[in-house]
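Fold this sequence, please.
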Amino acid sequence: MKLSPRERVVTALSRKEPDRVPISFGCLHDSIHVFGHRKLKEHLGFSGGEERIQDPFQQIVFPDERLRERFQADCLPVYGRPARPYQFQYYTEGEFRKWRDEWGTVYRQPLSGGIWFDFEKHIWSGKSAAQIKAHKLPDPEDPSRFEGLRAEVQRLLKETDKAIVAHAPTGGIVEHSYWLRGVNDAYLDMAADESLVELVADRVVEWLEAWWTRYMREIGDLVQVVQMGDDLGGQDGPLFSPALYRKIFKPREARLIRIVRQHSQAKIYFHSCGAIREYIPDLIEIGVDALNPVQVHARGMDSASLKKDFGREVGFWGGGADPTRIMSLGTPQEVRREVKRRIADFAPGGGFVFASVHNIQSDVRPENVVAFFDAALEFGKY
């Protein structure tokens, strides 16, 4: 029986087999870089259309609707807003294009040859515990953050049959800690002063608890999927001590998940790049329904092994193809073989939403993008 995209995604994330493997293209972690987007549209003969940046840090877009329909994407993203009077804008200083987020973190991109943005300034770098405690953060419950949001989601539910994915306002507790503190300071804290790690985490969690509560009260009953996450892994293993994660970050992430559960029946997908096999039992324990982006080329993250060991307890959102050796460097024929393999590993019994391993980058040939999604439609039938 043919299902709607909304039914297809919910069925899959309930670890049951829908009519075909659902496809996600255009959400926060499975969209495409703006340069790749332009090349893909040109390749398919799609002229015109608005180019909207979804995440300025990564320079990914909300894909042209013609591309989403061409690849039969099943999901649509929604976001809260920054609080007024903050307004996003680029500005130029010297050889860099820059922007500042509402928290005060500054990002920069070289004007010549820049692809993404990188950090330039962190407001808590070098600050003492007393200064961090005293710093006033943006108001997480400012009504302007949620103005019109419920009406927007209701419109999407009425006008489309897509599954609605409600995205987090920022990186998770770990990520936002080093966005505020700086990567160097954050890791020195982990090694030398756990009390500072806890202080920064608590300030971030306090903000996120208030935000998630209001966000879920607004739209929790309307959305099918909620995205949360924290980058915990590198290519070869955890980014920091798993013991520190379990002591400081895991219980605080569990608190945020409980808030979502209190206000919504939505499935939760948790985004963490890298080799996170060691953390998967922890994420299952705190209530995660699906893992993203499923970095299948990282250590211990092979698709067949993940499905065998964890597929009865958690789903997988992503993992469609090795993003470097295959998507960036392979041929369309190699992409097809890779997609066939990953679907064969992940799809049986449900629990799989097909998507790229993180966003499709600017160096991926448009022919490979087309082969990627066409193969998913061909091999993803149950």
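The chain has 14 helices and 13 strands. The mean pLDDT is 97.
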